[in-house]
Design brief:
Number of helices of chain A: 7
Radius of gyration of chain A: 17 Å
Number of helices of chain B: 28
Shape of chain B: globular
Radius of gyration of chain B: 27 Å
Strand content of chain B: 15-25%
Order of helices and strands of chain A: EHEEHEHEEEEHEEEHHH
Number of strands of chain A: 11
Structural class of chain B: alpha+beta
Oligomer: heterodimer
Distance between the termini of chain B: 54 Å
Helix content of chain A: 10-25%
Helix content of chain B: 25-40%
């Protein structure tokens, strides 16, 4: 069994559902507090940094947590090939810690800026559609499910940004792991497809090996079919509507489950890097 | 024996001097209350005692004007574990049978079940003065009430009433509305509690006094319920009062008393100091620490109690946790963790510093608990000076004493603090309203044009803009999000078929015309919103927002309101338990809500209803499902346009003011409830929307729009050949339901309704094309594209909120 630590920082608030989604994907998942003894982190095969508001988003979202010594343990694990998934605030922490994109490890190379589009700025909560760009690591385990994964997003600072040439470079290196797309899978047409004005419609950025992923939306809120809104366009909306009246079907997997399954499958490949 | 602090010389003053003395001391107690206090004590009260009683005998804490009235509410039913009185109410969910399925009937007393904990709170006055902080601490306070029962908070809802965003105070109204929404969002989002629904109205009556009511719901096992009063054993064994959380400062000073009087802009700055400061981030860490602390205490086997620090701060929580058990408490302020070492006793005991809890625990548990809060969870690293300290010990003598620096600042009988002298204000019925005027029938050949106006109005526009500011999906349990349906819903125990829903009710627009009806109608609306998703109404909470009880008409409104709530709750009843009422398990009263000119707000009894499904697969939203289905109306025509959104928006003022209000018949309401639930249980309802603001046509439009206004289907509706009746049929707000039913299921649906004596009328058919089409006896009269209508509906609130988009 793959053992996953869900890292609880002061202010994390998505631990419960993240553990549940990992368990549903076949892992043994445990919430581990930020100040656990250093040796505790060695007991795990993979790490998930869940959503929330670590250290009150002081300075910048994720900036304080990124300085905590627990990130040294996670970086060491990542170096040893253990997969790391940062979701929402967890993504912000990975970016602030320089683990993602990690071209020069330890350097903050991109920013997660405040949401800003002509139509909307500030905190935004609603469903978006993601597609995986081809690449190694976690994405290699996604299979056809990666073509279109609807899930909710809920953040105020999720706009991946840097000088344009940085994102050109990241695209060339295949590190833009997930992008926002239109509900039909086509290119995002601004807001609300891309809810925050993110550079190159980036929803998730990863390290060179695709094993450390910073993803802004919330796959654990899309891991069961009952979580899917019935008006959602496309296949998953159809499945949700077809399950009306059938509580067993509604309790079945939702689109976000595939991401957790891929993460667990990746962890099972061990230190192969 | 420590010396008593000097008294405030009040005893020998005449009325005029006493009134002046109290004002100078910043105390709002009534003269007779102070006289009675001095007589009871046989001395002048100390300043700390005066401050403590000023808060504890305030309307907000003591319910001194309403306690007797509130006894009229039904609060007991087989599914009620704990009614009003503690920090929050507790309702048992249906138990699972051996086959894994839950049954409504199996939720009475017996083996410990799983429970929902409900709290309902108002934060009106603070939100008017400091909207962001006021609304945020409203959420912060109500979740604390639910947490301290031992529950995990799994949802919040908010009911908001703002002034007229286009009226004379438009700028202030918008600023308040934006601030309140920002505060609700900031607190709930950071805490990680999903917002499951809200209700907002804009009326000029609220220009000077907005309403911010919040509801929190939590989940808990029945045998994990934590008492709010110290265990009796604390009289004989060594028990400590452990205060955990932020260090005490002077914020929120006198908040309870402030919320129990009229707002006064002349004292703006002084009153602002009474508003508390929120810290959801710290609360989140504290909540995690509490969970572990409560588990430790449960495992230790010794009884313990927990109380949140809200109104009246430390003095309130500490005296209540002792008095409720007939105990006394010696409190040593020198041991209190506080921001300023030299803060005065009277400030420390009534300041409403947020994010604190009081625990009554065995002395032996103090050391491990302090380590848990301060070392494991590093509270002091989050907020300087935060932590856990044993600051008091329980004593058998029922006196509440507070010491600081070798001086005794409070020495009062415990129950004197918690039992304020009650007041029975005189009442006088308002003059009977004039009989509804005989008005000419409104005629409009342009139903869809009127609809468009309604859709763009503040009363009718989509609330989606607000909903997107709130996290509605954190915790991963969300089944129906705000806007999906008439009620929000979650799956409380994923992996099991149980579901729970929360609906809201209350309408300011017509409330002045009939105080009884406003209250009974609020219950009915909250219940309808739950029934519309297919859930069985399971329990109620209320918040009674009224003006001053000191005017006989105002007090009568309040009395009539309580009667209206009680009548509706009894008439609708608890499904599965014939004869049992739908019980009120929690509530709150907020008085002295008025304009600066002294005009009371409209009676605003705001109600929340919990619903349950034994099988959440039966849940339905408002969104139409398939072309060819029928839209059946479960309701009764009475063509009443008085007080309607239509009359308001189309400026039919005479109709609005004097036209008849829709009939409210509790027996019929109950019959419709049972009919729709029976049909829903049988799987006959594809989607459902209650008929409310804007009547049937508005409801049909919303069924095509669903949450985001992206219609894929349309409706053709037909009110018959009589064009002179069409406006009334289209826009009257007669209570009822629109149910989408497969054509093949129509007979079965009617058969499900028949035993209840409920009539069903076909009003429309679902179209494959996203259009609204009005026909008259089969002849098409009007047609509009849903996309055009939805564009108006989606953007109707933008003018109020768009400048506040960085909330």
């Amino acid at each position: 069994m793959i053992r996953v630590a869900v890292v609880q920082f002061p202010g994390s608030n998505c631990e419960r559902e993240t553990v549940a989604a990992l368990v549903a994907a076949g892992a043994v998942a445990t919430v581990v507090r930020w100040n656990a003894p250093a040796a505790r982190w060695d007991e795990f095969d993979a790490y998930v940094l869940p959503g929330g508001f670590s250290y009150e988003d002081r300075v910048r979202a994720g900036a304080i947590a990124a300085q905590h010594r627990v990130l040294d343990a996670i970086a060491a694990g990542a170096d040893a090939g253990k997969p790391v998934l940062g979701l929402c605030n967890g993504a912000q922490i990975l970016v602030e810690a320089g683990l993602v994109p990690g071209i020069e490890p330890g350097h903050v190379e991109v920013a997660l800026a405040a949401n800003s589009t002509p139509e909307w700025s500030g905190y935004y909560c609603d469903w978006v559609h993601l597609a995986a760009n081809p690449g190694p690591g976690l994405r290699a385990h996604l299979g056809p499910a990666g073509a279109l994964i609807p899930m909710p997003t809920a953040h105020g600072q999720g706009r991946f940004t840097a000088r344009p040439e940085v994102f050109e470079d990241l695209a060339r290196r295949g590190q833009i792991a997930f992008r926002y797309v239109a509900p039909d899978g086509g290119a995002a047409q601004g807001f609300p497809d891309n809810p925050n004005g993110s550079c190159r419609d980036t929803a998730g950025l990863c390290d060179a090996g695709g094993r450390v992923l910073a993803l802004m939306p919330h796959p654990e809120r899309s891991a069961w079919l009952y979580q899917v809104p019935e008006e959602l366009p496309g296949e998953w909306g159809r499945r949700r509507r077809a399950a009306a009246g059938d509580v067993a079907a509604l309790a079945g997997p939702g689109p976000g489950r595939a991401l957790y399954a891929a993460f667990v499958a990746l962890a099972a490949t061990g230190g192969a890097r | 024996m420590m010396p008593l602090a000097p008294g405030v010389a009040l005893r020998d003053l005449d009325d005029a001097a006493l009134a002046l003395g109290l004002r100078d001391a910043g105390v709002q107690l009534r003269l007779e209350e102070v006289r009675r206090l001095c007589d009871t004590l046989g001395r002048d009260p100390t300043r700390a005692e005066l401050f403590l009683l000023n808060s504890m005998w305030s309307e907000h804490c003591s319910y001194k004007s309403t306690r007797a009235l509130l006894k009229r509410l039904p609060t007991a039913a087989p599914n009620v574990v704990l009614g009003p009185g503690a920090d929050a109410g507790v309702v048992r969910l249906p138990r699972r049978g051996p086959d894994g399925r839950a049954r409504l009937e199996d939720s009475g007393p017996g083996a410990p079940g799983r429970c929902v904990v409900l709290g309902h709170e108002s934060h009106n006055h603070p939100s008017q003065l400091l909207p962001v902080e006021g609304a945020a601490t409203g959420i912060g306070g109500i979740v604390r009430d639910v947490y301290c029962m031992g529950a995990d908070v799994v949802g919040v809802l908010d009911v908001l009433r703002f002034g007229d965003p286009q009226g004379p105070q438009a700028d202030a109204v918008r600023q308040i509305a934006r601030g309140v929404v920002g505060g609700v969002a900031a607190y709930g989002n950071a805490l990680g509690v999903p917002n499951l629904g809200g209700d907002v109205e804009f009326e000029a009556d609220f220009d000077d006094n907005c309403l911010v009511n919040v509801v929190a719901l939590g989940l808990m096992d029945e045998d994990e319920l934590i008492p709010s009063v110290a265990p009796a054993v604390a009289a004989a064994e060594s028990y400590a009062l452990l205060l955990v959380g932020k260090p005490t400062d002077d914020s929120g000073l006198g908040g309870a008393a402030f919320a129990s009087g009229l707002l006064d802009t002349g004292e703006d700055t002084q009153q602002r100091g009474a508003v508390q400061l929120p810290d959801p981030f710290f609360k989140r860490v504290l909540t995690e620490a509490n969970k572990k602390a409560f588990a430790f205490l449960r495992q230790s086997g010794a009884p313990f109690a927990v109380k949140d620090l809200g109104a009246a701060g430390l003095g309130g929580a500490a005296s209540e946790i002792a008095a409720g058990a007939g105990l006394g408490l010696d409190l040593d302020l020198d041991l209190l963790h506080r921001v300023r070492a030299d803060e005065a006793a009277q400030v420390l005991i009534v300041s409403e510093t947020q994010e604190r809890y009081a625990l009554a625990v065995p002395q032996a548990a103090v050391e491990p608990l302090v380590a848990l809060y301060e070392k494991e969870f590093e509270l002091g690293a989050m907020v300087r000076g935060a932590g856990a300290r044993a600051i008091g010990r329980f004593v058998a003598t029922p006196r509440f004493r507070v010491f600081q620096n070798g001086v005794c600042h409070v020495d009062l009988p415990s129950v004197l603090i918690t039992e304020a002298p009650r007041i029975d204000w005189p009442r006088a019925a308002r003059p009977a309203p004039a009989a509804a005027a005989a008005l000419p029938r409104p005629v409009s050949g342009n139903v869809l044009g009127d609809l468009r106006a309604l859709l763009g109005s503040t009363g009718g526009a989509s609330r989606h803009w607000l909903f997107q500011r709130y996290d509605c999906e954190v915790q991963g349990r969300t089944l129906l999000r705000p806007g999906d349906a008439d009620a929000g819903a979650i799956v409380p125990h994923p992996g099991e078929p149980l579901g729970i829903a929360m609906g809201l009710g209350g309408l300011a627009r017509t409330a002045r015309r009939d105080a009884w009806r406003a209250a009974a109608g609020a219950v009915c609306e909250a219940v309808r919103n739950v029934v519309a998703v297919g859930a069985t109404p399971w329990a109620l909470t209320d918040c009674l927002n009224y003006g001053s009880p000191e005017t006989p008409h105002g007090m009568q409104d309040l009395s009539d309101g309580v009667d209206g709530l009680a009548a509706a709750a009894r008439a609708l009843g608890l499904r599965g338990f014939p004869g049992a009422p739908l019980a009120f398990v929690s509530g709150n009263v907020s008085l002295y809500n008025a304009s600066l000119a002294g005009r009371a707000i409209p009676p605003s009894p705001l109600v929340a209803c919990l619903g349950v499904w034994c099988d959440f697969g039966r849940a339905h939203g408002v969104r139409l499902q398939a072309a060819g289905n029928l839209v059946l109306w479960v309701g009764e025509e009475d063509r009443a346009l008085g007080g309607s959104l239509w009359a308001r928006v189309t400026a039919h003022t005479a109709w609005f003011d004097a036209g008849p209000l829709p009939r409210l018949d509790l027996e019929r309401e109950c019959a419709r409830m049972h009919a729709v639930l029976d049909a829903s249980d049988a799987g006959l309802v594809q989607s459902c929307h209650d008929v409310g603001d804007g009547g049937i046509v508005m409801a049909l439009a919303e069924m095509t729009f669903a949450r985001r206004g992206a219609a894929t289907l349309g409706v053709r509706f037909d009110f018959g050949a009589d064009e002179t009746a069409v406006v009334e049929r289209a826009f009257a707000e007669s209570p009822g339901y629109l149910c989408e039913v497969r054509a093949a299921d129509r007979a079965a649906f009617e058969a499900a309704c028949a035993p209840h004596g409920v009539a069903v009328h076909a009003v429309g058919v679902v179209l494959a094309e996203p259009v609204l089409e009005r026909a008259a006896a089969g002849v098409e009269r009007e047609r509009a594209a849903c996309a055009d209508l939805a564009a108006v509906w989606r953007t109707g609130l933008q003018h109020i909120f768009d400048a506040g988009s960085d909330a």
